[in-house]
Specification:
By secondary structure, the protein is of the alpha+beta class. It has seven helices and eight strands; from the N terminus they run αβαβαααβββαβαββ. The protein has an eight-stranded mixed sheet with strand order 2-1-3-4-5-6-8-7, sandwiched between helices. The chain starts with a helix and ends with a strand.
Length: about 170
Amino acid sequence: MNYYKIKYDKYITKLDNLSNVYYYFNTYGKPIPAKYINVLNTIKLNRATDKQYLQIGKNADELAKDDYYSHGKLTIGSLNMNFTLFNTTGNKVTSVLNFIISDNGYCYIETFCGFNILLLNLVKEICYDIGISKIQTFSIYQPETDFLLQNGFVRERGNLLVYLVT
């Protein structure tokens, strides 16, 4: 019986953590491509309001610290159509992960700040659910590289990190 209680407690803890996780999908006024419709159908999170999403830019200094590439993506924005997953505590954004679904059938992490394992695992689950077999990112920011290597990514070439979704 104790086994089931531990398993139940872990499940409840995960649900509590997910209540603070939001997604935002910026299409820049364009029609939603088919490759993203599967993600929208799979994702089981709260959609962020525009006001919640704008909070990311307000917390960019604290989120990106000395990662200037990520700081630019959080304050200026991305030129790509991407999904943003972010975690909040109160009115403060504590971690952000932007990802892109490529035409070649893989997922590319464009920006990752705050290094929350929950967000990374959500991207892994989404990719698994929609049939994507590879997650890639190019990282020159050492704390990000270290975090990803500790969580299943491998260095492929130079600063390219890859995770094979199984």
